[in-house]
Amino acid sequence: MKQIKTALGATLTIAGLLLISTLGSCVKGDKGDTGAAGTNGTNGTNGAQGAQGNQGPMGATGATGSTGAQGAVGATGATGAAGNTNVHTTTYTIAPTTWTWLGSPNFYNGANATCANITSAVINYGMVAAFWQDPATSTTTWYAMPYVWSPTATQTYTVSLDWMQVGSFGIRFYWNDGTNAVWTTNKTLKIVTISGSAKAAHPNTNWNDYNQVMAVQAEYDNK
């Protein structure tokens, strides 16, 4: 190394001057590029489950859904027990306003009614029995028609079947002296239709006896 002497008598080496010169001339360089992203860290452990929240309010009712498809036809039910097709009873209440005065030359009151049990088979092969009751005097006794009653020693009235056809019938009520007078209370009538087979199966039955007729009907009802 070369030595020099300064005016103050100091001795310096050239190498030292070069170092000082170099240090005094350093300048900051440009910012370098961003480095590559580091790898992701591992996931942390799951936190504890929070407490259950309060129940929310009920939601609005939804719209009505469309009608579902029709279901399959169900199985056929068991056959019911056979009904009584041999002896039928139909009861009628005869009010005072039911009667119609027919006048001369008949001089009787008439009343008509329907009865589905009066069939052509009953008319041709069986029979129809009619029974009369006056609730004003008895609610248990039934009289076969024609029924004749005498309220006085000289006056009688008769109630009887007047006519009959399929599905309907008529009755008549008359006084022996032709008086046009009807009751002021209701009366009761029973029409009993008996099939030809029931009539033939009971040859000893008195069909004008209400109790015997009801016994035959009960026999068929209980079969």
UniProtKB/TrEMBL annotation:
<keyword id="KW-0732">Signal</keyword>
<feature type="region of interest" description="Disordered">
    <location>
        <begin position="36"/>
        <end position="66"/>
    </location>
</feature>
<dbReference type="Pfam" id="PF01391">
    <property type="entry name" value="Collagen"/>
</dbReference>
<protein>
    <recommendedName>
        <fullName>Collagen-like protein</fullName>
    </recommendedName>
</protein>
<dbReference type="InterPro" id="IPR008160">
    <property type="entry name" value="Collagen"/>
</dbReference>
<feature type="signal peptide">
    <location>
        <begin position="1"/>
        <end position="25"/>
    </location>
</feature>
